[in-house]
Amino acid sequence: MKNKILKASLLFLGSLSLVACGGNPGSSEGGDGGKTEPSNVSKDKTISFWHCIGHDKMRNLNRIITAFNEAHKDTDGYQIVPEKLSGSYDDLHDAVKTKLQAGFVPSITMGYPDSFSEYMGTGGVEKSKILNLDSFINNDADFHPETFVDMYYQEGKGYQYEGTWSVPLYKSTEAMYINKEMFQSTTFYKEHKNDTHGSYGAVIGDPSTWDWDTLTYVASQVQAEKGTAAGSDFHALGYDSDANLFISQMAQRNISYTSATGTGEEHFKFVDTKGTPNADLVAFGAELMDLINSGALATQGSYGSYSSDLFLKKKAMITIGSTGGSAYNDPKGSTTSDFTCSLYAVPAYQGKNNAKYIMQGPSLCFFDTKDPAKEAAAWEFYSKFVSDPELNAALALENSYDPVRKASYETDNYKNWTAQGKTEDGKDDEEKELAYRIPALTATIKDNYITSPVFVGSSKARTEIGKVLSYAQSFKGSSSDKVSSALIKAWTECINYIRSAK
Fold it and tell me: Is the pLDDT of residue 20 over 50?
């Protein structure tokens, strides 16, 4: 069931508009999405869709919802009713849990697998609040899982129970953004741009060759040059998500984080069962603390705000953040910034052969409403509308995300959009908005995406590992001592959460 008029409008919109996703990188924040319920729709025919997308990010999704509603209003009468519950994924998760406890049940909600796992619970498949989607998939002759980007689709199978429990909406990762003029104007760059550093082929003047050690070395050198002025609030390197920083670096360094198997404290591997933090993780955290203390590094947890804010104010030379939040790092869309933003993959520990990148972006789960006809209609909304290759391409690209169907990448809309981010010889065009340039970058790294184990408590683990640098600042002693105490605190919070959830 496809609406040609809708597709035409989405293609036209995709070629003209530039709307980024999220109020801050890694979240979906913005204006009040509100509850847009069609008039004269009975509750029995209402397919409620809980989300955290701001009003200004709903443009394409609202068009898809309208198409579904138009197709159903004179037949079975089912209507999608989107309702914004919050402005971020974490807050959405809390709001959904609160509403569920109060007896409210949606048909669909967006979010991350960590959240969905908690809606499933540990009482067995029969007590899960969300639906195993395998029966819908197997009975839908027009739905073909092999037509999806494999890792995006397989994420929906990685839960505590066998089956497919969620489906992807659109996906993103992290990128490194650099103020090109600032970097190239430093004395350090001018004197060392052709120098190599370390053992992994890094060239100081070419960020595409950097490994993690070179990135932090460059940040330290630039900080020493630019951040010594009295009262300076300059930080050479910023990282928007502390959790992503730790999780990705732990994966690259083969440091254990969590495990889907086991019970209770056995899930959390960054501290052993005797309460001793992983020594390699303590050493890494201490390096971060030393960078923070020198001023060279500012993270959301250590500084108190997103480094994208510092980046556009020219108080950070480099920032690492979500591709889905690229608009918040884009001077082309800012009224206060006028520099060139260079775009690169995030440097990996010990070089590109060890590259692992966080896979982000929301998925959808479907709740057990005790109404099979409504649940079938909700599934059709996803299978025939949201995941349609052309519609999903327009939906994703408008918000700097990657579409989930392989065929989306062959659509005219996708090709025309991405062509706008390249020069005539096919290279990254730094004069264009980041949203047009991001897809070319993510296409080169999506084979190296990683996800973390999902279980009841995995969401808490992510939250707590993201608080380590913040926790560390409240303890005394050396950087290592502070990080060790912070890791124990984070681990303890995770254990207590698991125990209280039983």
Answer: no
